[in-house]
Amino acid sequence: MTTTSTTSVTNEYKALQAAEAAAKASANSSSSSSSSSSSSSVSSLDSLATNYTSFLTLLTTQLKNQDPSSPMSSDTFTSELAQFAGVQQQVETNTKLDSLISLNQDSQLSSDTGLVGDTITANSTTLPLQNSSASLSFTGTSGETVAIAVSNSAGTIVKDVVATASSGTNTWTWDGTDNSGNKLSDGGYSVSVKTVDSAGTTSDVAFTVSGTITGIQKGSSDMMVQLGSATIPMSSITNVSPKTSSSSSSSSSSSSSGSSSSSTTTGT
């Protein structure tokens, strides 16, 4: 009996460690990708334009300083002009492509604004805390040990829970307080869900997060959905519940959330 209890506690600790490590990694990844993606497309185009200018300078310098007694052959000159034209065309094509993408995003932005106020579920490691409430759902088996860890943008674990899942869909609801009971500000937090088997091997648990759309904005490669202060890609959304039926959805969601949440939050 003692051995079983000790093993159980050890496995719970392993699951919690794995969940915390994954949440921290997700927070660090989100922070670096958001800063790099905003400048990558601009820097690539700038680099291409710089290379184009450098190529033109080199070609004209070569022509001015060629040996009059042995000028560049017409084949070589034609080949270099073709390269020059190719670089120029690539710069112009990229510029026009950016314009087309921007126009398409403007059109999509106009249509997507109708989603504001709708409730969504998404495959995302970003957990949106809105009005001091956040929730995620996952499918579990009866008695399965599940660890949930939440990290802030700095990679600091603010909340972790070890829970026992019930069979089927489980919903974990967070009230926005940290492990010390302090109330945290609304925003996007990184979350991870892990499970552990009897041998102590941890693995990921697939989950979805929920939130209410408060805005739509253009991203570098995808439309971005604002869930309060949190932002996720439009492509990560798996389901949208229109605001016209939000009241009835809310009440049914609240009742199911209450029952499944109680079955999954058996420990901290």
TrEMBL record:
The lineage of its organism: Bacteria, Pseudomonadati, Pseudomonadota, Alphaproteobacteria, Acetobacterales. Required for flagellar hook formation. May act as a scaffolding protein. Belongs to the FlgD family. Residues 234-243 have a biased composition (Polar residues). InterPro entries: FlgD, FlgD/Vpr_Ig-like. The keyword Transcription regulation does not apply. Residues 20-42, 234-268 are annotated as: Disordered. The keyword Protease does not apply. Keywords: Bacterial flagellum biogenesis, Cell projection, Cilium, Flagellum. This is Basal-body rod modification protein FlgD. It comes from Acetobacter suratthaniensis. Residues 133-196 form the FlgD/Vpr Ig-like domain. Signal peptide: none annotated. Residues 244-268 have a biased composition (Low complexity). Pfam families: FlgD (PF03963), FlgD_ig (PF13860).
